[in-house]
Design goal:
heterodimer; A: 140 residues; alpha/beta; Rossmann fold; B: alpha/beta
Chain lengths: 140, 476
Amino acid sequence: MEQENGKRLVIGVIGADVHAVGIRILEFAFRQAGFQVTNLGVMVSQEEFIGAALETGADAIVVSSLYGHGELDCRGLRDKCDEAGLEGILLYVGGNIVVGKQDFNDVEKRFHEMGFDRVFPPGTTPEQAIECLNKDLGVG
Amino acid sequence: MRPVLLIDFGSTFTKVTAVDLEAERILGRSSAFTTADSDIGRGLNLALDRLADKTGDLVYESRLACSSAAGGLRVMVSGLVPELTAEAARLAALGAGAKICRVFSHQLTRCDLTEIEENPPDIFLLTGGTDGGNRQCITSNAERLASLTSRFPIIFAGNRSALDDCERLLADFPLTVCPNVMPCFGELRIEPVQKEIRRLFLERIVSARGLSRTRELLSGILMPTPSAILSAVTLLAGGTKEEPGIGDLIAVDVGGATTDVYSVGQGEPDDAGIIFKGLEEPYAKRTVEGDIGVRYSIQGIIDEVGPDRLACEADLETGRLVQLVSHLTAQPFLLPEDQGEELRRLDHTLAASAVDVATRRHAGVLSRVYTPMGPAWLQKGKNLRQMERIILTGGSLIYSTRPLELARQALYSDRHPESLRPYRAQALLDQDYILSAMGVLAEREPGIALRIMKKELTPLGVCHRRQDQEEANGSA
């Protein structure tokens, strides 16, 4: 395992999504990469993400969504973060975040407009996410 | 014979119990009005004289006490997020037998500070942030507390990364440091804080409350009464290393002003399809409802249940109910047995509603969520469905003529299927008011306390969940 880098992540599967496996893999990969991870598991509400990020003093919230309703579930998360005093916190989202076959560039644009700093398409490896986190959080 | 004296300084009555440790039985008990204003010892002496009339003169090898006199142990807590560290701090203080006068979350405001200054607590529990997490909130709260003129004991149990700063800021407060109540997200660690609250209660609070003069009479142990009851039921449920307990249980104590509910057990989801959400639940949990009681707090019961339904259950006209309630509120010392049939019915209904409402607030809640993969269940709070014993204590339950019916109010009901209360339970009655005494004794002689409780609590029989049908028929 890499040495701890002092950066804290809150991760979880948003909404009514019960896909429990991928988030465990991400937790493991992020820990291996030196992050302190709070894994909220499945069926996580926006409020839970925010509460956990506040208490743990998180540097980034990483949202996973695999059941196609991500767009509905994620809407307003950035605004709520601002309200809660988490202005500027890094927001990532990834997975099967929309329904059907859509052009990912459109999807990415929509999620950027919703306030997400990074949007990952299906098939992203944990390494790609880690690389982005390291870059955005100034690690290494 | 090895007689020991156990004392419970209540806000109204001082109760004394003599126990023979050798025979493991209760020798006698009696009570007298508490004389808190002058010297608490006078009420105690009166109770002791009455006890001596029953047991003859005894030479006690030790005297142990618990107290809720003089308003109990007033604690204020502060945390960061209301459902997280602030809630963890609240649970910690409740389990230590405290009376929580205020729960603050996020940053303390000037208005909050004025409130603290005007009515300083016996103990302030300062929390916020997981270890290594947010430290700005707790540090700024420490700084704000330091700006006050009053100096009260503070327990620091928050983010340890903020400890050094807070210690410096609170240098002239009596400050003690405990492990974080929520060291990492969702994890609850409240026992060290509870131990500390009890130590402070013994050391500092007692001397300020006119209890000190009796202190030389005591042999050391003195704890807040709710904490003694929680110790007793925890011992009864879990047993000792040598002897098993009776298993997971809940206990209900309906008083004139408040209703306390205790539950001992893990309370985790009982089905693989249920997902648990929120803060971990304490194994031994206490909640107290300040607005639910059968004398001073009748209004809270009416607000919750509604006057019409209450009247219907007591078989009274609503107008008559209102009349009787104002009669009771004006004379809180009225006992039901001295009264007419109507008042007795009302008293029974009030006690039943108090048990129903207080256990519903204590128990966790199950909610159904529809997902694209089908329905799923979410559990928030503690699951009591598999707990198979319920203990009744407190005057209005102990002296009830139909206690089993009251016990039943703590069970699952079709009217509130979301409330995770027991399906069926064996009811036990604390007929002789021994729980608090046994909690105190448990500090010294857990084995004996356990065996006395097993022997002395009166089994009432088994009660079952409440179904729609019979509720509709109106059989209580």
